[in-house]
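Example 5.3 — Beta-lactamase domain-containing protein
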Amino acid sequence: MKITEHVHAIKIPFQVKTDSGTLERFVYSYLIFGDEICLIDSGVSSSEKFIFDYLEKTGHTPDEISLLILTHSHPDHVGSAQSIQKVSGCEIAAHEGEKSWIEDVDLQFMERPVPNFHSLVEGSVKVDHVLEDMDVVELGSNINLKVIHTPGHSKGSISIQIPSERVLITGDAVPIQGDLPIYDDFTGSIQSIKMLMGVEDVELLLASWDEPQKGENVHQRMVEALDYLQNIKKIVEKLASENSSSEPMEFCKTVLKELGLPKPAANPIVARSFQANLKELE
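Solution (predicted structure tokens):
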């Protein structure tokens, strides 16, 4: 999907199978065309097929990808990085806070056991460039990518602003109301969203789990994200005071029921989010 002359979006469907059922999901990867091509996020395992097919349709080849930026280390963002690098020879960039999990996916699985993790991720890749807040990546043709550190969803999550295109790519930093609530740091998530709301001259919001948003919808999506997180906080506080089960998965199911989310949403990474809320209460 062509977003602007230089920014294109690729929607990649996948499934997450849990003990409670199967979740139908999708994730967006983004191609940035300057004098060089930069790919933002690699999707899950086998996503290179979608990405390479799209490149071919636009008159390009995989070996034109010079850089793969990973907004963070989670499976639906790093899953096909290994294949993409192998075919294109591209370098890989990410924040220091995500580096260890990108370079050792077995460590990531041990510390954050996502359902069917190894079917979503091909393997580990080396991070060639560590990105920091306010770094600028130059692609030529006046296409510059400004790095914004937006922790909360994960400690090293980054967003990418492309000033010349009036585009803001946010990874999973801006949660979607009614979608899976996934974050390691609740307060960090709130602060990051508020910071992104202050980024000037943004016409297009490109998240990983949402359709592209334009104009007034950009600000509205961020307001909705803040409201959603605050509602989750209230529900967690209420259930904690009612002495609901202290077992993480049982507590997760209770919170999800209050939120009106489907049973298959109950999995360890969502439970981890609500545990982050409980830690802040303590």
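Remark. The first helix runs from residue 48 to 57.
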